[in-house]
Specification:
By secondary structure, the protein is mainly alpha-helical. It contains 21 helices and no strands.
Length: 473
């Protein structure tokens, strides 16, 4: 529809140019006629003769000049009007054609950059059919030239867009044919890569849009499993990773399982080695080595199914596990989450055979991870010299985790370093709590003046502005 509208617009513009040319021919004939009349009026002479005396002759010559000017004036005035109309029509014709060219070229470039290569071909060939003077140079701005240069390192012309579009269409067709061939051979990894390349080039091509749904589903399943394999390896879920490797190997003949299987087997062997050392340390009563080996095995393979069994065997008749459980329960009742976090590896091993304790420990570790993230963020902001911003970050975290000593210490230190701003903000909050919106708003404004990026001050100003001036917009 866009191309059709543009072709119609170009056709109408050319009809307008033809009308202007026809009008110019009539004006040209009119101009020639008035030029001839002007010359004739200038040459026309009176039948009367000049008097003999000098005074009479001068008066006679003056009268002749007046008569000559009167005869020429209408023709000269019309001649000037005709020349002005001819010039205006010429400018109008040139502008109309140039504007039509630029609009048509803009459509072609837009279709090409949108990767609608079939439409770009249709539009470029319509362009050459409409504008037959051989001028195929694209009139682009600097930004468009730069963008075109990045897309294709060739001179920006209609012919180059035609050639590039044809080449892209050919590449997509060949890629799709290659994908179909690879699917017939059950080579899903190569087929997935080639289909991705074809999609990037010709997303809107019929070959891509009409690609069989069953084949898409096969490639989607393979890609999904490949991504799941990467995620499983990343989180060290080697049991799930092995299942995925076997499925991928079964479904895709070109899938190479050597690298993931090597990573899985290596992790398993190392984890088992650490577990064996942990058993020996438990038998010898070496608590330090036991803790170190359990920690190492957990870090290598966190959800190793042998880890819970080994931990149960090790701690079955040992006071170490029971002591760890008791410590965990005591710290949990005291809400001393930081101490649990700092000694998390010992507690992970201790609660390995207690699902309920594992859930409690997981909740504590997630909470402390959020606290540590907030502390790191505040310290990073403080290191940049933004003490007020660091205080706001710590204050926000404190509202969610008021019992953490480390966070409270950091908040206290930052309160001292940004005392002026903190005091101003505290005064504003106190006045707001006392239901003194006007005074509180003034203090919030003063706090924002001291620290323009303050989110607390901005929120307070928005709340109190709505309260003080409820009808203001």
């Amino acid at each position: 529809d866009t191309i059709a509208n543009q072709v119609l617009g170009a056709w109408q513009a050319q009809k307008n140019v033809v009308r202007i040319d026809s009008a110019n021919k009539s004006l040209e004939e009119d101009r020639k006629r008035h030029e001839w009349n002007t010359r004739m009026s200038a040459q026309q002479s009176s039948l009367s003769t000049a008097p003999k005396c000098s005074t009479g002759a001068a008066q006679w010559a003056k009268e002749q000049e007046i008569q000559r000017a009167a005869r020429m004036q209408p023709h000269a005035q019309r001649l000037a009007e005709v020349n002005a109309l001819l010039k205006a029509n010429q400018v109008k014709s040139e502008i109309s054609e140039l504007q039509t060219r630029i609009e048509f070229q803009s459509i072609i470039i837009q279709l090409f950059l949108q990767r609608r290569f079939r439409h770009a071909l249709i539009a470029s060939r319509f362009y050459r059919g409409i504008f037959t003077d051989g001028d195929n140079k694209l009139r682009l701005g600097e930004r468009a030239k730069s963008l075109f240069a990045r897309v294709a390192d060739v001179p920006p012309t209609i012919n180059s867009i035609d050639a590039l579009s044809s080449e892209a269409i050919r590449d997509v067709r060949e890629s799709v044919e290659a994908v179909k061939f690879l699917l017939e051979k059950d080579e899903l990894e190569s087929a997935s890569a080639r289909l991705g390349e074809a999609f990037v080039i010709g997303e809107h091509m019929p070959e891509i849009q009409q690609f069989p749904r069953e084949d898409r589903q096969r490639i989607l399943v393979f890609s999904r499993q490949a991504n799941q394999l990467l995620s499983a390896l990343e989180v060290k879920d080697y049991a799930r990773a092995e299942e995925l490797v076997l499925d991928l190997k079964k479904n895709a003949k070109d899938f190479d399982p050597s690298k993931p299987m090597m990573a899985i087997q290596t992790a398993r062997n190392v984890s088992r080695m650490h577990l064996a050392r942990a058993r020996n340390a438990a038998l010898s009563g070496d608590a330090k080595t036991l803790e170190t080996e359990i920690r190492a095995a957990t870090e290598i393979w966190p959800n190793n199914p042998d880890l819970a069994n080994v931990s149960g065997q090790i701690f079955e008749n040992s006071d170490i596990q029971q002591q760890s459980i008791n410590d965990f329960n005591q710290l949990l009742s005291q809400k001393n989450y930081r101490r649990i976090f700092e000694d998390k590896l010992r507690f992970i091993a201790a609660v390995a055979i207690y699902p309920e304790k594992q859930k409690q420990l997981t909740e504590v570790l997630e909470k402390m991870t959020a606290v540590e993230t907030a502390i790191f963020k505040a310290q990073e902001i403080s290191d940049r010299g933004d003490k007020a911003g660091a205080w706001e970050s710590a204050e926000q975290a404190y509202k969610n985790f008021p019992d953490d000593n480390k966070l409270n210490q950091l908040r206290a230190d930052l309160t001292t370093q940004a005392a002026d701003f903190v005091q101003t903000l505290a005064k504003a909050e106190a006045l707001e709590n006392q239901d003194q919106p006007g005074a509180s708003l003034a203090w919030y404004l003063q706090a924002r003046k001291k620290y323009p990026a303050s989110t607390f001050a901005r929120a307070g100003i928005e709340r109190l502005s709505a309260k003080v001036l409820p009808d203001a917009k």
